[in-house]
Design goal:
The protein is α+β, with helices and mostly antiparallel strands. It has 1 helix and 4 strands.
């Protein structure tokens, strides 16, 4: 079963891969989940920045949920 073909690389169900998953804003302030296939030799550079952004996003989400709970 072939899942993805990219850059002359075919991934099979049993292949181990690394992906970057993130939320992107689209038209009309909507959000969409995106995934990028990472090369095997990619290092984890930038993870500290991403972790900080992730923590900020989670804090914002918690605050929005709390406001909705209070308003209901």
């Amino acid at each position: 079963l072939t899942l993805v073909q990219r850059d002359n690389r075919t991934l099979q169900v049993f292949d181990r891969v690394r992906v970057k998953v993130y939320v992107a804003r689209t038209v009309g302030n909507r959000q969409e989940l995106k995934m990028d296939l990472l090369d095997a030799d990619d290092d984890d550079e930038g993870d500290v920045k991403v972790d900080k952004q992730q923590q900020e996003a989670e804090a914002t989400l918690r605050a929005v949920r709390k406001k909705r709970k209070v308003a209901a």
